[in-house]
Structure formats: C-alpha cells, structure tokens
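Sample entry follows:

:::
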Amino acid sequence: MAEIQQSGGRYPDVGNQYPSGDRTNYPATPSARVAYPSSRYRNYSELGVLRVSVPDNWRELSEQGSVWFAPEGAYGSFNGQAVFTHGVSFGTAQTSSRNLQQGTGELVNSLQQSNGNLRPRSGYQRADIGGRNALSIAFSNINEATGRPEVIALVTTQLRSGELFFMIAVSPESDYGTYQNTFSTILRSVQLND
C-alpha cells in the first residue's frame, strides 16, 4: 500500500507509510517475531494536538501529518515502502466536508481506492475520542509484505479547524484478540488539544 493523496492532505496507507528518517535502517521485511505490548505505557505529545499513551516497548516513527507507534519486528521495508504489521497511527487530514460521517467516508474511499484488498468488516459505529463524538469502522486486508490477513480499525473525529483526526490500528487477524485490548487502552488515553 502506498500513501494516498487527496484534497491537499495525505492519508497514510493503513499498513504502509514512509516514516521520516532513513528507510535503509528498516529491516528488509517485518520479522515473524513481534514483541507483545508492554503493560507499561509512555506518554507522547504529537501533531500539535495529540497527547497519547502507548506501550513503552513501541517505537515512534513520524511522518509529516501523522505518526506511527509499532513494536520491534512489526515494521520493515517491502518494495521500497515502509510496512507495518502491528501498531497504531495517528494523523490529521483535510476533507471537503465538516460533517464527520462525510469526511470519514472520504477517507475510507481513499483508503479503499489505493488498497485493493481492503474490505469493511462492519458498518460505522459511534465511538469516542478524547470526549468527542467519533466514528469507527473495521476492515479486513491482506498485508503486502507478509501475505497474511490483517484487521485494520479506523476511528475518526473532527477537530475545531475542520480537519479530520484519525487513529488507525493494525494487526494480523490471528493476533487481533491480543492487540485489541492494547488498542482500546491507547484510544482511551487520547487527549486532543485544539
């Protein structure tokens, strides 16, 4: 999956993205051994609006407009692109609508256009991000680097500026039960300061 261009903003591809820094430092592919999430969490301030807590054994990988947090072994390089098998990404994007469902629909459409294997597992559900109304939706996908089925969860809300704020969580389908609690804990820790 490659980065998605739309309406002046870039949406990260759910499983792959170019973090800042030298991609030659990434392993050739994600490893088969991925560390389980630590029960200890570390606080981060990101993107000028986000405060979040993530497992302290996950690495921060930043990109303009978004940031990934992933455990060792869960990221690498494949066909010249950074790939992720486990982790969370946060970012903001411009949409043409100030309506949360319409803006989220734009993001979902863009993700599906650039990721041919991305299929909804559910419809939109009401959610909460930092005390704000949010929408969530889950997808099935095939990770390009590993060929394994994965689950991708997307949660969105709108910032006061009208930008869409999103959290994307990804893990192999076989590991989703283990990671779902970690993703929920991370989501509950989100504080937005806009």
In short: Residues 4-192 form a domain with the Protein Transport Mog1p; Chain A fold (CATH 3.40.1000.10). The chain is about 15% helix and 45% strand. Helices lie at 100-114, 176-189.
